[in-house]
Amino acid sequence: MLTCEQCRAVDRYAIEALGVPGVVLMENAGRSAADLIDHWARGRARRRPGGPGDPPPPPHAAIVCGKGNNGGDGLVIARHLANRGWGVSVDLTADPASLTGDAAVNHRIAAGMELAIRVLDGPAALAAAAQRWRTATVVVDALLGTGFAGTVRDPLAGIIDAINAAAQAPGTGPLIVAIDVPSGLDADTGRADGPAVRVHRTVTFLAMKVGYTKKTARAYLGRVTVADIGVPLELILTRLGLPGAARATSRGPTAGL
Q: How far is it, in rounded angstroms, from Cα 118 to Cα 93?
């Protein structure tokens, strides 16, 4: 179990000391999350009501991305799900020109693949997106990562409210999946001081976060799965002087599945 700062320290060590490019870590994280989302959604489709032999409807993922690395993870997920035959739509909270670093790299790839990418730049855009979310197979929350603390304000607060409303759609509704942390939840304290996404599943990277053990976090997290991002975690924790953290760290791409 790690704090958010310890997770950042592991990332820094992997990048700066071991020489693993940050874009590779993002690729590994997004692909691991896509593997899980695909598995969960296909299992859920098999449980939907239908006549004998009725094929499940083609899966569609609505991926809601912020401008930081969490949004970059979402763009990787979009690409891998599209490669598996999913319909994919991406809703960005920022002008693509404002993206930087690894998130910008993955936006360029997704745009080059001609994935459906839209910008949530006002009430009309959000209303149209909310309609798509209600009919999606999966809505992926890739808005805010573990670096977030405080209270979410508009326009992100309105986006979070719309994601939560999508979960209440008639019928089975979409599966809501958070990437690393439900947006609006503080991963260290396990508290949400304002609006936060309430998900069915959370895919978190490297290890469980300390805040996820708090009673206040349970209403937001759903079931938590720790996904692999391709770093030698126990080795890095030992070198950082944090060997005790490894004992409470789940390993493997399907831990908690």
A: 9
> Could you tell me the domains of the chain?
4-46+58-248 (3.40.50.10260)
Measure the CA–CA gap between 21 and 28, rounded to whole angstroms: 11
Give the residue from 142, 174, 175, 177 showing the smallest Cα distance to 156. Answer: 142
> Which residue from 166, 198, 197, 164 is spatially nearest to 183, judged by alpha carbons?
197
Distances (CA, A) of 179 to 29, 128, 226, 255: 9, 23, 10, 15
Cβ neighbours around 178 below 10 Å, total: 31
Write down the pTM of the prediction: 0.91
Distance CA 249, CA 229 (A): 13
- What are 255's strand-pairing partners? 226
Q: What is the pLDDT of residues 19-59, one digit of tens each?
A: 999 999 999 999 999 999 999 988 776 656 555 566 667 89
Mind listing the pLDDT tens digit for each residue in 195-246?
999 999 999 999 999 999 999 999 999 999 999 999 999 999 999 998 766 5
Query: What burial letters (b/e) apply to 68-90, b meaning 16+ CB within 10 Å?
Result: bbbbbbbbbbbbbbbeeebbbbb
φ, ψ dihedrals at 198, nearest 5°: -105, 115
